[in-house]
């Protein structure tokens, strides 16, 4: 059903909730995972235009993606990674389309109206601009990390 799942990672605690759900789904369906993190700091947003060097934040994000991918591969899953640069909703949508993903998995922080107004909602922007199904897992939903000692 879902051959390639884009997993939007934040490089934060919310990922500890999302990754176990998606790992289990991928195991059951035989899906390939594409782990994506969107670096959106100044260097990332202006990387190409200003011909900047990769920032420490971008290097840390890449190392984070590689670490999560390695642990998932150790569990027998097929995993690729992509560090995108720029606006998170835009880059998630662009990557999902370009890499022919048939499911986008993301976490929700449970902001209520005022929080979404001030903070913006990546999920809202993604869901309103794609026909690809989206799986949203609420951050902190109680699933244990699939990575012992993490």
- Mind telling me the CATH superfamily name? HUPs
What is the helix content?
40-55%
Q: List low-confidence stretches.
A: 114-119, 143-150
Number of domain units:
1
Number of helices: 6
CATH class: Alpha Beta
Strand order of the largest sheet: 3-2-1-4-5
Strand count, sense and closure of the main sheet? Answer: 5 strands, parallel
Distance between the termini: 31 Å
Order of helices and strands: EHEHHEHEHHE
Instruction: Give me the CATH architecture, please.
Output: 3-Layer(aba) Sandwich
Mean pLDDT: 84
Radius of gyration, in Å, reads 15 Å
List the quaternary state of the chains: single chain
Please count the beta strands (DSSP E, at least 2 residues each): 5
Estimated structural class: alpha/beta
CATH topology: Rossmann fold
Given the C-alpha coordinates, what overall shape results? globular
Strand content range: 15-25%
Question: Quick recap of the structure?
Answer:
This protein is α/β, with parallel strands linked by helices and 150 residues long. Helices cover 41% and strands 21% of the residues.
Comma- or semicolon-separated keywords:
6 helices; Rossmann fold; 150 residues
Q: Would you kindly provide a written description of the structure presented here, covering whatever features stand out?
A:
The chain has 150 residues and is an alpha/beta fold. It has a single domain (4-138), classed as Rossmann fold, CATH 3.40.50.620. Helix content is 41%, strand content 21%. The chain is built from six helices and five strands, in the order βαβααβαβααβ. The protein has helices at residues 15-29, 42-45, 56-74, 88-98, 113-119, 122-127; strands spanning 4-8, 32-39, 79-85, 103-108, 134-138. The protein has a five-stranded parallel sheet with strand order 3-2-1-4-5. Helix 1 (15-29) links the parallel strand 1 (4-8) and strand 2 (32-39). The protein is globular, with a radius of gyration of 15 Å. The model is unreliable at 114-119 and 143-150 (pLDDT under 50).
């Amino acid at each position: 059903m879902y051959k390639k799942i884009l997993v939007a990672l934040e490089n934060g605690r919310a990922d500890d909730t999302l990754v176990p759900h998606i790992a289990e789904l991928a195991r059951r369906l035989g899906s390939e995972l594409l782990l994506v993190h969107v670096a959106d700091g100044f260097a990332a947003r202006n990387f190409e235009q200003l011909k900047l060097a990769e920032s420490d934040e971008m290097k840390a994000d890449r190392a984070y993606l590689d670490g999560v991918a390695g642990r998932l591969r150790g569990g027998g899953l097929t995993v690729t990674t992509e560090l995108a640069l720029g606006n998170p909703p835009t880059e998630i949508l662009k990557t999902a389309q370009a890499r022919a993903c048939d499911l986008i998995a993301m976490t929700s922080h449970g902001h209520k109206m005022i929080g979404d107004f001030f903070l913006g909602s990546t999920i809202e922007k993604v869901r309103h601009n794609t026909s690809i199904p989206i799986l949203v897992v609420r951050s902190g939903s109680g699933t244990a990390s699939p990575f012992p000692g993490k």
